[in-house]
Amino acid sequence: MSADEQVQDPASDQTMTLTEHLGELRVRIIRSALAIAVGMVAIVAFYDQVLDFLIQPYVDLCAEKPPEFCDPELATFSPTEGLSTRLRVGMYGGIIVALPVLLWQIWRFVVPALNAKEKKYAIPFVASSLVLFGSGGVLAYLTVDRALDFLISWAGEDVDQIFSVSSYVSLIGLMIFAFGIGFLLPVLLVFLQLAGAVRPRRLLDSWRYALVGIFVLAAVITPSGDPVTLMMLGVPMLLLYFVSILVGWSVVRRRPAES
Length: 259
What we know:
mainly alpha; single chain; 12 helices
């Protein structure tokens, strides 16, 4: 291939200058921000229903426990807390609603660095990311009552449990994002294997380091910091680590035949 043909190849990363890369990044960020704004408006429009859904695990926990264990009614402690909570719920929900657009924009930004065969993984990348993030979010939602049970029990018998709505929303929102991002680990590892940055055998040989690193990462990103949440996030991430090695190995081993 001649130098002129290389310059004209849109799939080559060498065809874009630094200015063009920055311009492309700006376009992707603007589109992502617009998608989040639209999702945020939609979530705010159904704020009451969304808030009831988020509070339900805490209400169920208080219903199972004695009356003195916790109060299912959340409170606000400042005039602006209601507005800030509504905006926070809208922001969290807007990002989740806009997640397909965000993932597609990320893929379109990194696709020039991939060859023609690797670009065919666009739909599997977006679809698997959505499924994994959604699975992590569902697991976080199902786990939050156990985390609250553990945390409340350590507060002491003479302490009245009255939570502000903003602190509760922040906790469950950050838990959903922590679990969702943690479940995206195999997507990142498979991408690195496709890009040739790491080999499946190297990942398999490093499983002991991965075990420690995964649980350290789970401890860092979980907002509650309790051992129940740590195990509920760390164990699935470790299993997904080995799944990503299997997927990467099955893809990489076909390359000699395809080439």
